Amino acid sequence: MEEGKFVFEDSEEKNSHSSHVGGMKSKSEMVKNLVMFGGWLKGEKVMKGLLQKKVGDEDDDDDDHGMMMKSSSRSWHLELCTLRVLCVVLVWTMVVVEYNKGISYDFIHNLSAIQAYSSPPPRIYENNGYLMVSSNGGLNQMRSGICDMVVIARYMNVTLIVPELDNTSFWNDRSQFQDIFDVDYFITSLRDEVQILKELPPQQKQKIQSESLFSMPPISWSNITYYYQVILPLIKKYEVVHFTKTDARLANNGIPEEVQKLRCRVNYEAMRFASPLQKLAKKLVTILKQRGPYMSLHLRYEMDMIAFSGCNEGCDQQEIDELTKMRYAYPWWKEKEIDSEKKRRDGLCPLTPEETALILTALDIDSDIQVRKETLLEASELEPFQNHSNQMAALDYYVSIESDIFVPTYGGNMAKLVEGHRRYLGFRKTIDPDRKVLVELMEQYKNGTLKWEEFSRLVKEAHSNRVGNPTARSVIPGKPKLEDYFYTNPQECLPPLHY
């Protein structure tokens, strides 16, 4: 097991395509740097420089940005085009050579991702109407729902209005889309697939003000046919339809491959964090990488989670009463009466801090150095985000996808999305605790049935194939809540040789 540092991510679970930090300096890295950091633009300047002597005598005109080459010579244009073609061929020849030598999927993915950085041409289609959505839940729950809404809008040929984020949930964060995500990049990078507007056009805005806005929650885990046959006629009738919920409104499986691939493009490329968040997150990762490998631990044992889950391991009676009261205070937390002990035995409870420390020790992960983002940054740097739990969760998300090892202690939305994102970035190591097995092993260790050496061996054995490695997504017909979540294992977007 690879050793690493701990990053305790304890912000509320709310659920960018970031640049890879570190790595070998090789020919492939040189090619990547050439493409990612303006190598092509510099190459073109070099080509112009090589030709400048030839055309300089013909035309010495300058403009405000420096010398511009002008020539009516057809041979000059031909040479320039030829050099450009040769440069492109050279770059991609190097890519193919390095790929055949065993270059990682991570590198190939980064090369393909640059396509998103240039604005694609807008898609021209007959607009069937407008879709407004109110996202519900924490950051990552909203994130996956928004990705689905983009896909749904695209395949119904409707215009999507930039989603409204949930401001009424437990976390009481007033952040809106543009506070967390780069809204202009989101709109522009997807314009070849779907039209996205920041707000309704004046005519439609006036229409919903004078008439009632048609609102509804679409049926959970629906396929594309449902949106064609049920939702599209409603949009054509009312012109504007408002979805009151976005979470889990599209099925995991049984979806056309092109739809699944678009879900990936939206999630892993278009949903880039807003510049202030992106900048600070990159700084955090840089500081950590300079100190060596690090592990991101998503320790999900806060009041809201244990109240919601009904798990009270390690709590006294007063704390249990407070947690129960909190559970009843939120009407959208549907499950009220919960058998904590049974739920824990079934592996449905988050690991406690004590249990987490025990398991990590059994896995031989070094715990000598423990850091938090608050100790790595100046207070003034975190202050703009401190009272915005969704923005703090965005920082956690970025640091987690870039870590050498990611360990979630509960299978919530952040854990699911980070695991999937790490798969997409080249199957980065993610230790997914088997809580059902662990509870049984921990009970045996605590009562003396298992000695430490045997306990450690069994913990390692139970997790040998739970490290984010390639695997097929489970399908359970008729029980979508029990099958693997698409965003945890987006296999349609991963290298086909693994499946």
Automatic annotation (TrEMBL):
It comes from the Eukaryota. Coiled coil: none annotated. It is a single-pass type II membrane protein. One of its GO terms (biological process) is fucose metabolic process. The keyword Glycoprotein applies. One of its GO terms (cellular component) is membrane. It is found in: Membrane. Residues 1-25 are annotated as: Disordered. Keywords: Carbohydrate metabolism, Fucose metabolism, Glycoprotein, Glycosyltransferase, Membrane, Signal-anchor, Transferase, Transmembrane, Transmembrane helix. Pathway: Glycan metabolism. One of its GO terms (molecular function) is glycosyltransferase activity. InterPro entries: FucosylTrfase_pln, GDP-Fuc_O-FucTrfase. Belongs to the glycosyltransferase GT106 family. This is O-fucosyltransferase family protein.
